[in-house]
Amino acid sequence: MIARVSISRGRRLLLVGLMLAAFAALAARSAQLQLVDHEFLQSQGQARHLRVVPVPAHRGMITDRNGEPLAISTPVQSVWANPRELLPARADLSRVSRLLGLDGDYLRGLIGERQDREFVYLQRHIAPDLAEQVMALQVPGVYLQREYRRYYPAGEVAGHVIGFSDVDDRGQEGLELAFDEWLTGESGAKRVIKDGRRSIVENVENIRSARPGKDLTLSIDRRIQYLAYRELKAAVRDHRARSGSVVVLNNRTGEVLALVNQPSFNPNNRKRLRTNELRNRAAIDLFEPGSTMKPFVIAAALETGLYSSETQIHTSPGTFRVGRHTIRDMHDYGTLDMTGVIRKSSNVAASKIALALKPERLWSLLSAAGFGTATASSFPGEADGYLADFHRWRDIEVATLAYGYGLSTTSLQLAQAYSVLANDGYRVPVTLLRREDPAQQQKVFAPHVARAVRRMMESVVLEGGTAPLAKVPGYRVAGKTGTVHKSIAGGYAEDRYLSIFAGMAPASDPHLVTVVVINEPRGDDHFGGKVAGPVFSHVMSGALRLLNVTPDDVPLLQTQKSESGGPA
Question: Annotated catalytic residue: which of 73, 78, 165, 291?
């Protein structure tokens, strides 16, 4: 009995001793881990869960001259996967593919081909609610990454000016491309701790702060841009034209207030985008300007001092032989003074005047006005135009140049040239950015010459002129029409035209220059005064009022109010 008690006591002591030894070992191990191996274990844990992640920087905003947004970047989520983690969960791929709208076989092939990688995009820039649904699936190896997506509030109204950026936020077209370096931000970096689901649970330190892209302020006025877009779209539709362009220019500063084209495109939705819709026709498409060149021929003649506003030009019988070629007018206009040449748009008279000038003098004036060179507006791919060297001019080339054949220009260049007439003979560089300081001006011809030509151009919109439909109620308008046969292989088409109107208002002290070009109108009307003239009238009328420009033709305005029953 005594022996059994002794054995039981010994066992208890042994058990207690073993327990004490175990506790002592645990305490020693704990002390070792906490005190001796602390730095090593911490480094190992950080190696597994501490990560350096990029901090995305958003692209700079593009605004109109009044601060209205034209391009902004909004945060979105993109779905990515680690193929090494996702492959073991291959059965879950079908759920992911259905939710993202991807073909299951495509997704399995994508993951299989990249199984040796740790990162592959499944879908970029998804909606927030879809991102939440993806993460709710809790599929191993599927994660979200924050990025930025470009959004264009004005849509197709400003599509050709702004352009667009790609999925990686790099500029591809328009000013997004031209100022890509300015708009692009610099990503930052931070050190974080991630859990087993790759979710950030703690921000450890900021390594490098993200630098957002710089904002860009354009010369465009969103209100006038929309007005021009609306009127051009209606005209192209009504005349069943192939395309069209409108440029509205502040002639005093050289700032482009509106630049629109048809057809256009919506940079927010490029799934069905066609290449021809991307072309900024106003800056890229070249055309022969037709009779819109005649005011510059008149200006060159007045500059010589040998011609005055009263100089008489004989045009009978409505034709004029130059070598083997015959220049024709629509009618026999008899004898015309300089104003009559502009008002009736006489090819015969313009040709005779041009042939009487020294070729170098005419070329010098046209070149100084901007013909034959790009405007340096900062728009990528802007065309230079074409103006042949005067040493190569033959008589027939001088004659046809007088009414706008044998040279080429863009709508933007033509607007710049007309701004010279509006600015009393001084050329101001064109810009698509808001101009804070006055630009350096270049003298092209004398101020009194510019004012004299403007007075002549006012007759174009009066009765007996070629564009009475281009009138702007309350304002005097100076402008010129152009109706151009389009060039084809072997000559010019008899039934394909460009309808053009270029002008300025108020004519007494111009603020705005507008150029309207309608390409291949179909129907009964194809003359510049009837097709492009009304577009000019509507755009200029709205723009002048939006800018609070004081009317300079108040008696006419009062008469119209009286006739409509309104207050005089």
Answer: 291
Domain boundary among 197, 217, 237: 217
Stronger pLDDT, 139 or 425, i.e. the higher one? 425
The answer to whether 193 and 52 are in contact (CB under 8 A) is no
Select from 546, 37, 517 the least CA-distant residue to 286. Answer: 517
Inter-residue contact 341 to 294 (CB < 8 Å): yes
CB distance 187 to 210 below 8 Å: yes
Calculate ∠ Cα 412-413-416, nearest 5°.
90
Structure tokens at 272: 């069905």
Q: Which distant-in-sequence residues (6+ apart) come within 8 Å of 216 by Cβ?
A: 60, 61, 62, 63, 175, 179, 182, 183, 433
DSSP state of 440: P
CA-derived radius of gyration, the chain: 36
Locate 216 and state its tokens: 């860009």
Same domain, 309 and 424: yes
Short-list 498, 486, 420, CA closest to 457: 420
Distances (CA, A) of 101 to 87, 121, 126: 20, 14, 11
Q: Residue 394: its pLDDT value, please?
A: 94
Cβ neighbour number for residue 36 with a 10 Å cutoff: 10
Looking at the fold, whether 145 and 233 belong to one and the same domain comes out as no
- Residue type at position 403: Y
For 474, half-sphere exposure in the C-beta direction (CA atoms, 13 angstrom radius) is 14
Does a structural domain hold residue 213? Answer: yes
Q: Which tens digit of pLDDT belongs to each residue from 316-343? A: 999 999 999 999 999 999 999 999 999 9
Structure tokens at 171: 């500029």
Residue 352 tokens, joined: 């005779």
Q: How many structural domains does the chain have? A: 2
Task: List % helix, strand, coil for the chain (3-state, nearest 5).
Answer: 40, 25, 35
251 and 160 co-located in one domain = no
* pTM of the model as a whole: 0.83
Domain boundaries, position 84: 53-217
Q: Are 294 and 468 in contact (CB under 8 A)?
A: no
Give the pairing type, strands 142-151 and 69-81: antiparallel
If you count DSSP H runs as helices and E runs as strands, how many of each does the chain have, helices first?
22, 21
What SS3 string covers 143-174? EEEEEEEEECCCHHHCHHHHCEECCCCCEEEH
Tokens of 444: 């092209």
Q: What is the pLDDT of residue 398?
A: 95
Token pair listed for 533? 């003239």
Q: Do both 137 and 229 map to the same domain?
A: no
Q: Does residue 330 belong to any structural domain of this protein?
A: yes
Q: Which two tokens stand for residue 511?
A: 């603020």
Picking from 385, 454, 450, the residue whose alpha carbon sits closest to that of residue 424 is 450
Question: Cβ distance 384 to 409 under 8 Å?
Answer: no
Q: Rounded distance, CA 324 to CA 322, Å?
A: 6
Residue 291 annotated as catalytic: yes
Q: What is the pLDDT of residues 53-88, one digit of tens each?
A: 566 678 899 999 999 999 999 888 888 888 877 777
